[in-house]
Design goal:
By secondary structure, the chain is mostly helical. Helix content is about 95%, strand content about 0%. The chain has a domain of about 130 residues. Helix 1 crosses helix 2, helix 2 crosses helix 5 and helix 2 packs parallel to helix 6. It comes from Cochlearius cochlearius (Boat-billed heron).
């Protein structure tokens, strides 16, 4: 750069001298020398410029290399620090391993001693096991002999059963052939039976219609019978109750007449005058029922009610109930007969 600056200064001086020479119009010989020097100086300038560019490129490349090397140095320094840390860690690890090795060696000594004692115990136990196993082997040999005998017996039994099985297989094959024959016959029978069933179904349909008609008729008849029985029982009850009332009235009439016969007309009139009633009212007072009579009538009414309920239950019950119904009605008829006889005897007396 200093050479460049010197050359540029010389060029400027040369240019200034050329300008002053042109003005003074000096001889042409020295001006030619000046031009040659100018050209030389320009060539030098160019060369120096080229060198400067080359050097600048080299400087840049060197700077880049320096930066790369610095970065490399930093990386290496970081790596060195890491390696130092690793080394410290490994030293600590080695120390720990040494201490563990010592502890393990001590443990190994104790374990070896325990192992020796255990080996002695194991040897003793194995010897005892061997003796026990010998005895067990002997017993197993005896069992094996027994088992072989049983095996030979079972083999004989197996052969026998095998022969029986073969015979049974033959029977089975025969039975299967028979089964096939019977199945064929069954299919034929089923076809004939289905045809017959279709015919029977038609006949049964017609018969069902007739049966339904008959059922309706029988239901109507049963309803009529039920109504008849209910009406008959009611009529019987009413007739019995009527007979009872008639008997009571007849009895009362007899008692009143007996009282009238025992009492004279004058005593009756006297009693009526005392009570301040007429003779007819006195007769009505004499005709009043006793408490026993009212209780008796209540009992009879309850019995009639129970009898009607019993007949209703019989009619609602399942078949057969005709004998029970007949007994109940006969009972009531007998009661009516007795009441008729009683009433007729009372009427004869009166």
């Amino acid at each position: 750069q200093q050479e460049k600056e010197d050359l540029q200064g010389k060029l400027k001086l040369r240019e200034h001298l050329s300008q002053t020479a042109g003005k003074s119009e000096v001889t042409p010989a020295p001006s030619k020398n000046i031009d040659l020097e100018m050209k030389q100086l320009q060539c030098k300038l160019k060369n120096s410029n080229n060198e400067i560019t080359k050097q600048s490129t080299t400087i840049k490349s060197l700077k880049n290399e320096v930066q790369e090397k610095e970065e490399r140095i930093r990386e290496l320094q970081a790596r060195i620090s890491r390696l130092e840390r690793d080394l410290n860690m490994k030293r600590h690890l080695i120390e720990d391993l040494r201490s563990r090795l010592k502890a393990n060696q001590e443990n190994e000594k104790t374990s070896n001693e325990t192992l020796e004692t255990l080996e002695r115990k194991v040897v003793k136990a194995l010897a005892e096991d061997c003796s026990n196993k010998k005895t067990s082997i002997d017993s197993l040999k005896q069992r094996l002999n027994v088992a072989t005998k049983e095996k030979s017996q079972f083999e004989q039994m197996y052969h026998k059963t095998k022969d029986e099985l073969e015979k049974k297989d033959l029977k089975l094959t025969n039975l299967e052939s028979k089964m096939i024959e019977t199945e064929c016959a069954m299919t034929e029978l089923e076809t004939t039976a289905s045809q017959q069933l279709h015919g029977l179904a038609k006949q049964s349909g017609q018969a069902l219609e007739t049966v339904q008609k008959k059922l309706l008729l029988t239901n109507d008849k049963v309803e009529e019978f039920m109504t008849f029985v209910k009406a008959l029982t009611r009529e019987l009850q009413h007739s019995v109750q009527g007979l009872r009332t008639k008997i009571k009235q007849a009895k009362k009439m007899g008692e009143v007449r007996a009282c009238k016969k025992g009492l004279s007309q004058e005593s009756v009139q006297l009693a009526a005058s005392i009570l301040n009633v007429s003779t007819t009212d006195l007769e009505e007072i004499l005709e009043v029922e006793d408490d026993e009579e009212t209780a008796k009538t209540k009992m009879e009414f309850e019995k009639d009610k129970e009898w009607l309920q019993y007949i209703q239950k019989l009619l609602e019950a399942q078949f057969p109930f005709a004998s029970y119904l007949m007994d109940a009605i006969l009972e009531k008829l007998n009661e009516k007969k007795k009441l008729v006889e009683e009433y007729s005897s009372l009427m004869k007396q009166t």
